[in-house]
């Protein structure tokens, strides 16, 4: 497991611990943004094992949120699967999702002035 996955897993664990301290929770759904490009199985296994060792019992699930973009110049919307990226470019985005603006451009007008609509962050839904 690399440092990026460890940091994300620890952030999830700390958020769950904090929430569980203040209220009873039964379910946590982790939403992983596609731009994070992380090894989800490693993160979820680490979170599961740590929560078990802390005796925090919650149902864990996850969803991968597709990266969606909207061009500020022409209004075109697209997803990450609509563009070709090298392994080096994907790795750069993995460590710094903001770097997407340096390697991706609008497939319609080629502008690099676009918004990331979804798929950038890691979020949690807690019940």
Automatic annotation (TrEMBL):
<dbReference type="Pfam" id="PF01155">
    <property type="entry name" value="HypA"/>
</dbReference>
<dbReference type="InterPro" id="IPR000688">
    <property type="entry name" value="HypA/HybF"/>
</dbReference>
<keyword id="KW-0479">Metal-binding</keyword>
<protein>
    <submittedName>
        <fullName>Hydrogenase maturation nickel metallochaperone HypA</fullName>
    </submittedName>
</protein>
<keyword id="KW-0533">Nickel</keyword>
<keyword id="KW-0862">Zinc</keyword>
<dbReference type="GO" id="GO:0016151">
    <property type="term" value="F:nickel cation binding"/>
</dbReference>
<dbReference type="GO" id="GO:0008270">
    <property type="term" value="F:zinc ion binding"/>
</dbReference>
<dbReference type="GO" id="GO:0051604">
    <property type="term" value="P:protein maturation"/>
</dbReference>
């Amino acid at each position: 497991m690399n440092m990026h996955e460890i940091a994300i897993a620890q952030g999830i664990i700390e958020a769950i611990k904090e929430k569980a301290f203040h209220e009873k929770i039964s379910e946590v759904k982790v939403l992983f943004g596609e731009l994070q490009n992380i090894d989800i199985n490693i993160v979820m296994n680490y979170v599961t094992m740590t929560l078990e060792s802390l005796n925090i019992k919650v149902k864990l699930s996850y969803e991968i949120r597709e990266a969606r973009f909207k061009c500020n110049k022409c209004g075109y919307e697209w997803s990450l699967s609509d563009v070709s990226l090298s392994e080096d470019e994907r790795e750069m985005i993995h460590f710094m999702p903001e770097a997407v603006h340096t390697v991706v451009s609008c497939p319609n007008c080629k502008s690099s002035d676009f918004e990331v609509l979804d798929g950038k962050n890691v979020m949690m839904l807690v019940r």
